[in-house]
Give the backbone structure.
Amino acid sequence: MTLALGKIKRGLDRSLEWVVALTMAILVVDVAWQVFTRFVLKAPSSWTEELATFLMIWVGLLGASVALNRKAHLGVDYFVGKLSPVRRCYAEIAVFVCVALFSFFVLILGGGKLVSVTLMREQISPALQLKMGYVYLALPISGFFLVLYSVEFAVGSLKALLALKRNVPGAS
């Protein structure tokens, strides 16, 4: 990866992590306010539950992108660990290609269509009066990051596979 692309990616990574952290902080404050108004003031806030739901969507989807970038996503390491290094590379490539394809078709294309349709129909949330298309923007944004990271890791695994095949005659 060139120096300029590396800087851009690190900037995107850092920005994504800050957005997730900030969203999580707002979620904590929102839920604390919800609990306070419900149990202390005995007058529950009408908008906090809806906001918490929307923030959870964003935290979950963008957090999945951060987890993939840190390679902290769920996996079945037991079976993959029993594979030879070459077959492990093949498995990693297959997994990252599947994640990239799913993210592209479902999150970017499908999520993008959902965003445009809900914005076009001007669907509004009941309590916050927020355009639902903005809530659904989490889908294509997280899809972008998941595709970016999946392609990056698939290419890395492909390079590792090629290096293994060059160094190990008859590797399988």
Residues 6 and 78 are 32 Å apart (CA to CA).
